Amino acid sequence: MVQAVLSGMTEVGALCEHFGMSEVTVRRDLRALADEGLILRTYGGAASVSVHAPEESLEQRSHSFQAEKDAIGRAAAAHVAAGDTVFLDAGTTTAALAKVLAGRQDIRVITNNLLVVQALAGSHVGVTLIGGDVRESSMSTFGPIAQLALSRVTFDKAFLGADGVVAGRGLCEATVDQAFLKECIIRQAANVFVLVTSDKLNRDSQQHWTPVEKPWTLITNALAGHAGLHTFAEIAGVHIESVDCSTQPRN
Description:
Largest sheet: 7 strands, parallel
């Protein structure tokens, strides 16, 4: 069963069919393997314990999946209503959203993302930058000062990026400070949106996690038939919005 999970067979139903076992037996065996640290239990199945992978540089992220990020940004912008105060998290996908919002003049943006500040400079959008220590690899702020600032504000909608998102586990990040800051952001938001390209679905290449313990919307370029979406569709409180990049205008 460990080999099956490692090869990508992570859903209880698929494991039952593969081994000819009952659901009760499969769930019992998965719990036992998780207790031994060989796998991780997730909602509806299991996941392999991935080895930590090096974090991509900002330059690498800035040039990867750009068309997909732009399409996700346009879809996310449609959720921003007149009068909204929104939080834009660190990352290049949220920066793509900022470029779309730059044409607005009826919203306020709070952010820890210096790329967002750059995108909105000179626009009519009101911007509040959360202070803190600057993380050069993401051009964002974090740390105790950022956490304190977030405790003093609330927002209608928060748009989060992530190094990976796993159903039943949450968002993974390279550092504990980043993961905890996202938890602070989620706590202060009335509505939560997670913006990720399809390669980040069920990706657990980092070791620090932010659980999402309220209803949230996943906006991704993965379409309905994408294997990575199935586990998210089974979780109560998660709304999936798939963006078809082939129908989106190109810059």
